[in-house]
Write a structure and sequence with these properties.
about 425 residues, alpha/beta, Rossmann fold, Tyrosyl-Transfer RNA Synthetase, Double Stranded RNA Binding Domain, four-stranded antiparallel beta sheet, three-stranded parallel beta sheet, 15 helices, binds tryptophan
């Protein structure tokens, strides 16, 4: 069995803050040290072009983010660490995938839909100020993932839809051209801490409440001093509940240290002393990383060289794979032997199975090409009614699930997109057999 591959993309469009460190960098670096997996980390700089047209900002952010990850212990010898734009096979694959993905799928992508909703609410043209890059974003992301046949993609909930779309593209491509792609799975990071920011809301660039990861010691002290607290006086007991300061501390401290601060809160520690204590604890963890960071920032040539080496590793995989894919779709050397043979791949298909149980009722289920249960129906009084539900699924795809609510259940771990992929494969196979 091949080793499991994890892939993580980071869009370089800002400066990392403590929330990014606790929620993403620190756990990812820890995971990258595992020897039983192969990890890919990349700077998604093509994605950054969608969000900003400031070239200096992209360059600066790419440097800062790369320096941050390396400073925090990402080891480029252990993982494949690269810059998306150093791998030209990725945009080429993006085109291949855009030719097997239905446009309607992209119409439903969250980021695009949010932009359209906003325009509609403002009474503007639905697509006002929406670039095609934003619309295509999930395809580029799909190419990032499928290029390296990643099994697992650690993401927040907001990105899960994109992983489902990547599965959709992989399914469609595999169906048309033979099995080339692994179906990726989202590894959802639910238990990862989200850090509150200065105002107590989630730390986020868009709330302007962040503490930069590599602020100087002095800035760090000042910013921690600016975290909101209630107005309890020194000597008054303080509640840890809902205290942003306490939560931030918890993300850095051991269980024992956390209990000690909890006690100090109960004993009426002043906010001033509490903040000083939190500052010192955070700085204790960050100071050595900050020193690494400053050294790296002073030597961009070193990071450039690391990226070049990473690109060579990535392309050692991507270039031959792309050659295989070009051949598969028919972009071939004209002298190649099988140039004239028609599409000959035989692919197993998903299947509907109808049956009757001992209770005398009629049921059906949908199985994947690999024989895995995707969808199970409830009981129907007659085979005809069961057949109507099947027909609705066959013609409308996962769109029929809403009207069949209560009549069918998705198997565990199966998403609407998986159902859509399977039904699409069936429709395509049917359409094809008609043209033959
Ligand atoms: N879209 C991701 C984000 O904004 C970044 C990203 C781009 C990514 N390509 C990816 C993440 C591939 C995982 C896999 O956070």
């Amino acid at each position: 069995m091949s080793i499991e591959r994890f892939l993580t993309g980071i869009t370089p469009s800002g400066t990392p803050h403590l929330g990014n460190y606790v929620g993403s960098i620190r756990p990812s670096v820890a995971a990258s040290l595992r020897s039983d997996v192969q990890s890919f980390y990349f700077l998604a700089d093509y994605h950054a072009l969608i969000k900003t047209d400031d070239p200096a900002r992209i360059q600066r952010s790419t440097l800062e983010i790369a320096a941050s990850w390396l400073a925090c212990g990402l080891d480029p010898d252990k993982v494949v660490f690269y810059r998306q734009s150093d791998v030209p096979e990725i945009p080429e694959l993006t085109w291949f995938l855009s030719c097997v993905l239905g446009k309607g799928v992209l119409n439903r992508a969250h980021a695009y839909k949010a932009a359209v909703d906003k325009n509609n609410a403002a009474g503007l043209d639905p697509d006002a100020d929406v670039n095609v890059g934003l619309f295509m974003y999930p395809v580029l992301m799909g190419a990032d993932i499928l290029m390296f046949n990643a099994h697992h993609v650690p993401v927040g909930r907001d990105q899960v839809q994109h992983i489902e779309m990547a599965r959709d593209m992989a399914n469609s491509f595999n169906h048309r051209y033979g099995v080339h792609f692994t179906l990726p799975e989202a590894a959802i990071e639910d238990n990862v801490a989200t850090l509150p920011g200065l105002d107590g809301r989630k730390m986020s660039k868009s709330y302007d409440n962040t503490i930069p990861l590599f602020a100087t010691r002095e800035q760090l002290q000042k910013l921690i001093g600016a975290i909101v607290t209630d107005s309890k006086a020194p000597g008054e007991p303080k509640s840890t509940e809902g205290s942003a300061l306490f939560q931030i501390y918890q993300a850095f401290a051991s269980a024992e240290e956390t209990r000690a601060l909890q006690q100090a809160f109960a004993d009426g520690i002043s906010w001033r002393d509490a903040k000083q204590h939190v500052f010192e604890r955070i700085d204790q963890e960050i100071a050595p990383l900050r020193a690494n960071y400053l050294a790296l920032m002073a030597d961009p040539g070193k990071i450039e060289a690391i990226f070049k080496a990473g690109a060579a590793k990535a392309r050692a995989i991507a270039t031959p794979f792309m050659t295989e894919l070009r051949h598969a779709v028919g972009l071939r050397d004209l002298r190649a032997q099988d140039a004239a043979t028609a599409k000959s791949v035989k692919v197993a298909l998903p299947v509907f199975k109808q049956y009757r149980e001992a209770d005398g009722q009629f049921y059906f289920k949908l199985q994947s090409a690999e024989g895995k249960l995707l969808l199970q129906s409830g009981a129907f009084g007659s085979p005809k009614v069961a057949g109507q539900s099947i027909a609705a699924l066959q013609t409308q795809g996962a769109g029929a699930l809403a009207e069949l609510a209560g009549l069918v259940t998705l198997a565990e771990g199966v998403s609407a997109a998986d159902i859509d992929g399977a039904l699409q494969a069936l429709r395509e196979a049917k359409a094809e057999s008609k043209t033959k």
